[in-house]
Amino acid sequence: MGTSPRILFVATYPSPGMIPFAAGIINAFYEAGHETWALTVSNRTDSFSKLLLPGIHLTEWPGPTSIIQKMAHHFRPAKAARAICDIADKNHITNIHFLTGEYGFALYRGKALARQYNLVYTLHDLEKHPENPQAPLKEKLFNQYFHWATMRLVRIAHTITSSSKNQCQQVQTRFPHKKVVFHEFPSLVTQRIKQGTRTIPELKGIDNYILFFGTYTLYKGVDLLYQAFIRSGLQEKCQLVMAGAGRDFFSMDTSENRVIRINRFLDDEEIADLFKKARFVACPYIQVTQSGVISIAHYFGKRVVASSLPFFVDNINENDRLFPSGDVGALTESLKLMYDEAALPCATTGDDNSRLVAQLLEAYR
Questions:
Q1: Cα 169 from Cα 233, distance rounded (Å)
Q2: Is 302 helix (H, G, I), strand (E, B) or coil?
Q3: 148: buried, middle or exposed (CB in 10 Å: 19+, 13-18, 0-12)?
Q4: Structure pTM?
Q5: Does domain 191-341 have CATH number 3.90.850.10?
Q6: Which residue ranges make up each domain of the chain?
Q7: Cα–Cα–Cα angle for 150, 152, 158, nearest 5°?
């Protein structure tokens, strides 16, 4: 057996989905018996320190708050770069693993880090998501920059990892000399989710609903889900709950409360209540690289209706149902069929990340 790799995990772009994703990988590596270092930046509402296990060598600071600080963080992350070098030098680090966007390193110190260490980059989205035409110009420009920075980091890094088999194949085709490593998507079921007892005030006295959970964006097909629900006639039997922060970009009739829109970030301690009371979960995406929603749904024993995109094809189980992506008619029929199927018993799944660690070790060789 060789020497355990010395890895510094870097997660400087926190978001509601990225924090548990990155924490899941870092915790899994530590639980497998490896000494583990992490450099993280947290947002106002949540932090890595709440999720990471004791014993991990964690350096964490609050995320930027002022406009100037945010711009500097996006384009010139000098503080993070200095911290990386300081931690790496003191602890004989050989691998730097970027787990979240880390977009600023595309312009600042990315190449320098790649000359000093084995630089591993977890790629989340090779293709840019479809944009909401109603989004402000600033948002569109930032999305364009994030995509450009992502592609530059792909070129800079020695090794690319992804939880999408399809995306791994695309990267290997476009960059044949790049080392590409697939690893399973880490379970997003945190201890706070497992132990959560908070109820959701917007759902008081309501259960047996169809659930969409996630950031409210165009590429997740929430408008198609709404259309399918209205067509299905299921309003007589249940309600549609669409939970997650984001700009509303299409018209909905919520006058009779058959459609409930929860436009805010939900705390981990509310997630158990949200999923336990659902009849089943819908993932109507028109584009996806990877998603952690199905890991939460399966943990709570909930069936999933998902579009037939490669990630969902690879990660659903025999109790779930696929429909052709973007096909509202097929989604309508899937909702009706799943409503009946969801009444049958469905086994829960665990949150074992051991295979993920074995897969990731390939990235550090």
A1: 41
A2: coil
A3: middle
A4: 0.85
A5: no
A6: 7-187+353-364, 191-341
A7: 100
